[in-house]
Amino acid sequence: MSLLAAALLLSAPLAPDDAGSHDAEFAARDAAVEAAARSWLNLVDARDWEASYAGTAAAFRKANTLKLWSDTAQSVHDDLGTMLSRQLLGVDDVPSPQGITIVKFRTDYGDRARVIETVSLVREDGAWKVAGIYIS
Q1: Residue 59: which residues within 8 A CB-CB, separation 6 or more?
Q2: Which region, left, alpha or beta, applies to residue 47 given φ > 0 means left and ψ of -120 to 50 means alpha?
Q3: d(Cα 111, Cα 77) in Å, to the nearest integer?
Q4: The pTM is what?
């Protein structure tokens, strides 16, 4: 019976003041994650492979060398052309031990419109770092 009571207490709605501060925390966190993703994508748009590689999480750097990253990114961006516009689609948490947050953008490039960029970020050393990017 006490387990049921504990479960009910955990699922109780937040008091109005708590809900507002909770929402503000998430909004601030989402804005910080979006800003980190945009900042990193600006480095990629500028084709600054070294700086963009430096802005990635340790797991990304463990799986990719700077050469592999720069060769792959250069090839992809040669096909896309110059970035023209980027619109935020959303920020979502992924249930994972790593604490991954996904930021999605709809981006128009000179040679391809309506590209979906999915950037995964993790909190590392007090900052949001890119753990991966997927372009579709």
Answers
A1: 98, 122, 131
A2: left
A3: 10
A4: 0.82
